[in-house]
Amino acid sequence: MSTSEIRVQDLHKSFGDNEVLKGIDLEIAQGEVVCVIGPSGSGKSTLLRCVNLLEEPTGGRVFVGGTEVTDPDVDIDAVRRRIGMVFQQFNLFPHLSVTGNLTLPQRRVLGRSKDDAARIAAENLARVGLAEKADAYPGSLSGGQQQRVAIARALAMGPDVMLFDEPTSALDPELVGDVLAVMRMLADEGMTMMVVTHEMSFAREVADRVVFMDGGVIVEEGAPAQVIGRPAHERTRHFLSRLLDPAMADVEEGSGEGSGEGESSH
Ligand SMILES: Nc1ncnc2c1ncn2[C@@H]1O[C@H](COP(=O)(O)OP(=O)(O)O)[C@@H](O)[C@H]1O
Ligand SMILES: [Mg+2]
């Protein structure tokens, strides 16, 4: 497919004098699934957050569906409506039922009627396999179920693009599979997806392309079998070997992320 759904050109982002993104160029075609991998602190979350302007780039341009997000005159709310975002933390409202969590943003942001919002909520809960949890409260659900609710909440907004920032990193291992299965289904349905993940088997099987970032730059990108299977760069090999070594992987997961996940309240 030739249409670029996401286009990032020479993207730079600094926090004070810490340059976190040092010139990122990336295009994601409509229907393409791109997995972004790389060590903690390499700028993956910042890249994702620059795509929907949760962070304001300090240089370069970002386009989503042909609209320049970095245009000072852009209607950013209109752009964000087309972008679904799923974080490591699910950010569900604990005092609202699952249905309430799905209908609230539809009504507030899209102005849908109560009936329409409820119908679309039910459709998307069914999509993620949680139709029977419509009236449950988040606190009664497993982490994996809560994350699937968060995905359904994003889908209910009818996005053209879905961004995932380590969606399974906070989950107990036995709950990861159900979330990845939902993401795989979305990929099969042709959703354009940008996924930051440490799940290499998911990246291998589902991604059209894998991007390896380190130190604020894209070190290499290509087909999963190439980047994960036969990495061209020493930094990629080093990262992958650490991921496969559980002792070192703990170090990887444990080093805190500076960005704070999500813009909404907990
Ligand atoms: N809001 C922020 N303020 C200051 N520094 C930040 C902020 N967000 C991220 N950083 C810094 O940017 C770097 C990259 O962070 P991040 O994009 O979260 O990396 P990754 O997602 O790859 O772990 C880190 O050094 C982090 O501390
Ligand atoms: Mg991150």
UniProtKB/TrEMBL annotation:
GO terms for cellular component: plasma membrane
Domain ABC transporter: 6-240
GO molecular function (one): ATPase-coupled polar amino acid-transporter activity
Stored InterPro entries: AAA+_ATPase, ABC_ATPase_HisP-typ, ABC_transporter-like_ATP-bd, ABC_transporter-like_CS, MetN_ABC_transporter-like, P-loop_NTPase
Compartment list: Cell membrane
CDD domains: ABC_HisP_GlnQ
Classification via SUPFAM superfamilies: P-loop containing nucleoside triphosphate hydrolases
Annotated keywords: Amino-acid transport, ATP-binding, Cell membrane, Membrane, Nucleotide-binding, Transport
Membrane topology of the entry: Peripheral membrane protein
Catalytic activity reported: a polar amino acid(out) + ATP + H2O = a polar amino acid(in) + ADP + phosphate + H(+)
Key word Nucleotide-binding present: yes
EC number: 7.4.2.1
Family stated for the protein in its record: Belongs to the ABC transporter superfamily.
Protein name per UniProt: ABC-type polar-amino-acid transporter
